[in-house]
Amino acid sequence: MTVTGWLQIALILAAVVAAAWPLGLYMARVFSGERTFLSPVLLPVERAVYIAANVDPKKEQTWLSYALAMLAINGLGFVLLYGLMRFQHLLPLNPQGFAAVPPDLAFNTAVSFVTNTNWQSYGGETTMSHLVQMTGLGVQNFLSAATGIALALAVTRAFARRTAATLGNFWADLTRATLYVLLPLSIIVAVAFAISGVPQTLAASAEVTTLEGAKQAIALGPVASQEAIKQLGTNGGGFFNVNAAHPFENPNAWSNILSIWSMLLISTALPITFGRLVGDMRQGAALLTVMYALLVVGVAIVYAAETSGVPSQIAAGIDPAMGNMEGKEVRFGQALTALYVVATTGLSCGAVNAMHGSLTPIGGLVPLFMIQLGEILPGGVGSGLYGIIVMAILAVFVAGLMVGRTPEYLGKKIEAREMKLAVLAILILPLTILGFTAASAMLPFALSSLANSGPRGLTEILYAYSSAAGNNGSAFAGLTANTQWYNTTLGIAMLLGRFAYVVPVLAIAGALAKKTKVAASPGTFPTHGMLFIGLLTGVILILGGLQYFPALALGPVVEHVLMQAGKTF
């Protein structure tokens, strides 16, 4: 590790926070229905959308109506995207002449993009036509991100309102998130990517002459526009198979910095929006502090593990100066690779600029654990905020037990109903991840997809289901996931991780919104100071450790011990 490397990391994170602060305040105005500097241009468009969809934005919904509306639009998105892939060979804008996507792969991919997971069991440049990439995958990148923002706003209103039976209007929140936040930012970032060298064309490929004199077709497409929403919406699906390690998706250090900044931006801004809407900026700052404290610790561990090198390589006489460079791009370096690895898994992004399967065992354990913590550091667009709020509810409940008081969070009493729903929500991930991992580790046809045996093979399976249920989408490599078993079970894991988690969270929000907001008293546990920050951090780490440590001990921890002894699988 070097001072220069840490300075690069610090400057990027500072740039994220500097941009996220005004963005968070801007979003608070947008979702409060106030005028913004974009209103003269976008307000007529917004009204036209409501008229076309027969929506009254002032008519608010209960938590159940809000949830049903969310499920309806995402269900429709699944059907349309599935059909688009199954019939892409009959549709225009298919200059590559790609055939129809097989049913199990189409199911997996449609679920993946609807749930903001963007797990890809295929190579984008060899499977999906330009039409599918733009109007299918691209549209879902916007809608899934906007859905996450809308859900976060619904949960926020539960604490911002004193006594209410409703959480807002889902259709209005979805429209405003798309029009006022995602679309303008995507245009700006897409232009910046194009300037940095990312292609933006409808051509299928470019034919070039290699150094040996042979002809080679290099895949092209509308990459810059897809890259922008991929990062801003924490979607992560790559236009090309190797994602942001591809020189057309991520050509240089500047595009790499822009990628990291873009993927962190909105998720960092939403806690600031939360603080403004609940009337106490310190509340949002406390959540953001926890998110970034754990994020920086994760970066430090990965950075240290990857720059320390591999004992077997050092023993073989390989120069250890650059550390473990297997699967990494020299143009990015160790520092920004470590930041990218942790950011993309602390988020629910899943974009990669290095192959996670080539990380050292400890370097690979960190992104795996970041996903398993629930994608809250700082988490996906919207999902990170409502995820850490669930953890905050658990933290104040623990604090209430310590002092013998009914726990409160932002003036709302946390009682038995809210705790039961919170526990139901947080159990979804471990049950899905560990259940499917256990089944796949025992079934011969599932094990046949592994490239490695022993602890590395277990880690490959565990990472796949963690990534799917956590709606991350990154892969550990070494697992051939394009089979009926993995396409189907990973798809189910994505659905459970997104919708089986968020419905109980919305039920919590509905219950809290109805409660009277009580004034703080001398006995109220403050939820904006260092004591609460420490408690929330401890609850997050203890829950993650209790749920996943045994599985991690059998995978990356054992592999690390073997690596130190010079053994590999």
Descriptors for this entry?
569 residues; globular; two-stranded antiparallel sheet; mainly alpha
Describe what is shown at a glance.
The chain contains 19 helices and 4 strands. It is mainly alpha-helical and 569 residues long.
Please describe what this structure looks like.
This protein has helices spanning 3-31, 39-53, 63-86, 103-114, 124-127, 130-160, 170-196, 223-232, 253-277, 281-307, 311-315, 333-346, 361-372, 383-403, 416-440, 444-447, 454-469, 484-513, 530-564, and strands at 205-209, 215-219, 408-409, 412-413. It has a domain at 3-207 and 215-273. The strands form 2 sheets. The protein has a two-stranded antiparallel ribbon with strand order 1-2. It has a two-stranded antiparallel sheet with strand order 3-4. Helix 1 (3-31) crosses helix 9 and helix 4 runs parallel beside helix 18 (484-513). The longest helix is centred in the C-terminal third of the chain and has 35 residues, at 530-564. The two termini are 28 Å apart. With 569 residues, it is mainly alpha-helical.
Largest sheet: 2 strands, antiparallel
Total helices: the number is 19
Shape designation: globular
N-to-C series of helices and strands: HHHHHHHEEHHHHHHHEEHHHHH
Please give the alpha-carbon distance between the first and last residues: 28 Å
Instruction: Work out the helicity level.
Output: 55-70%
Determine Rg (CA atoms, Å). 23 Å
Which strand order spans the largest sheet, edge to edge or round the barrel?
Answer: 1-2
Estimate what percentage of residues fall within beta strands: under 5%
**What structural category characterises the helix and strand content?**
mainly alpha
User: pLDDT average, as an integer?
Assistant: 93
Number of strand segments: 4
- Uncertain segments are none
